[in-house]
């Protein structure tokens, strides 16, 4: 069965393989090779027989084609209510058809499934909120992605992303030395303004172990400094691990379940090694889902829970405000109209909407809710890996229209978004549609308005 140099059924495992695939700019040769990539039907049949269990079969067979999922999907709305964008149609015409054919499918069909799985569903799970049968479309599309990945039918960027996790245990090529150097650099950068501030590495028995999104040390190291400042002001006993510091999982987006397990295990190993009381995940929704919600199952933990209690950053902020570890100067609250992007992964899938509203009550004078909101809020438009796939950029941009209209209806000029994918989508939304908004994580806003205890202020010269 012919396989290409770049597009094949072998996961990226080495730095050399990564460089080869990265060298195919934009995946031009990769996608050309995919057109000739034959389906390994016996392997696909065997995988279906081994993994297609009663829950998935029941969901596929119990769909009543009632259409209640249609208007729940932002992509259906953004595409002028195209019937082919109805969630039930999307899964029945891909996974459902693949099962009905018992794996007897060809290259053209698998490429169609790839296009649907990554450009027509972000696995946001909003449709399950409306399904009378409780069908979880996110789980089914994730399962489909896993089948496609195993056969080599995966977007170029996702192939690279899962390879990064296999090689570096991070979604980007950041070594342990790079990470530790960045921590030391940010500590040095802040020491003059914040005397005594430390970014402790590998401290055992700390109250908090803090884990991040690799994009922060790679592109936004100031985010790490901001986190350190707020932990410093709150008087937290915290640390970061030298290894196992990366929370995100492009492998999850890719459907590479072995790389997903390897990634999350590195975080759990850091917990076991350093024995912190709790973990705090940075402002990233899918990082929380990958490591806290899904991760225990990938790692085979019978409890279904992480080795230590784990919090998303909004939970820690809400706790710090409620307990007085952080105090807001009322005169420095946000005065302009502000709205908040509810992330699918820690609002809809982890129930943190109340913590978010408490934070907004403390920091904003003119908070305006998007309609709908909380667990019914629409996906940002770029989740599930869609933000980063060049092949589907136009589909992503069309999907952004729903979030654009939600924001415009609030009249807000600032959008707070404690999630990397949402932050990216809203940034790109402004670049595409020019609606005149700003966007921000929580950390830099909090630093501007938090009360600094006298003993932590720098001595005046």
From TrEMBL:
Residues 338-422 form the Cysteine-rich domain. The keyword S-adenosyl-L-methionine does not apply. This is Cysteine-rich domain-containing protein. Residues 60-135 form the 4Fe-4S ferredoxin-type domain. Keywords: 4Fe-4S, Electron transport, Iron, Iron-sulfur, Metal-binding, Transport. It comes from the Bacteria. The keyword Oxidoreductase does not apply. SUPFAM superfamilies: alpha-helical ferredoxin. Coiled coil: none annotated.
